[in-house]
Design brief:
87 residues, three-stranded antiparallel beta sheet
Length: 87
């Protein structure tokens, strides 16, 4: 199910509850096409890396936690975040 659909019709989101999702990780935030606010956020605040985790809670609501870091987050550390939903 696409995120756009899940945002429009939340009633279908319960089927996504308790499924495992990957981690969004951008090791180098500066210059990344995935982080559009380069001049307004990344450069002035010295952001090095970005990570995000998310999912669907039992009510069908989506949640996402986005982490901006002034320290580089390695691929190895980001892989450790993949177990967040099992803790």
């Amino acid at each position: 199910m696409a995120v756009q659909h899940a945002l429009r019709d939340r009633s279908q989101n319960t089927e996504l509850t308790n499924k495992r999702y990957g981690v969004f990780h951008v090791r180098e935030a500066r210059g990344s096409q995935h982080i559009p606010a380069q001049d307004e956020f990344v450069t002035p605040y010295g952001m090095k890396s970005v990570g995000a985790i998310g999912g669907v809670i039992s009510s069908g609501d989506l949640f996402v936690t986005i982490m901006f870091s002034k320290t580089s987050i390695s691929d190895n550390v980001a892989r450790n975040l993949e177990g967040w939903d099992r803790r």
